Amino acid sequence: MPATAKTMFWLTMAGLILVTAYSVTIGSDGWLWFTWVVLGLMTIGTLAARRT
């Protein structure tokens, strides 16, 4: 896995942890989850593009 894809993967995981912590402490915010899903899809797309 290239360094850029690996960095994006770890940033996505860190984002998931932050969104979860925020949702637990303050309350769920739909826009945060939507943003995380978009970031996750971008990461999957980056990983898929690197394999071809």
From TrEMBL:
Transmembrane domains' residue ranges: 7-25, 31-49
Alphabetical UniProt keywords: Membrane, Transmembrane, Transmembrane helix
Name recorded for this polypeptide: Integral membrane protein
Species of provenance: Streptomyces olivoverticillatus
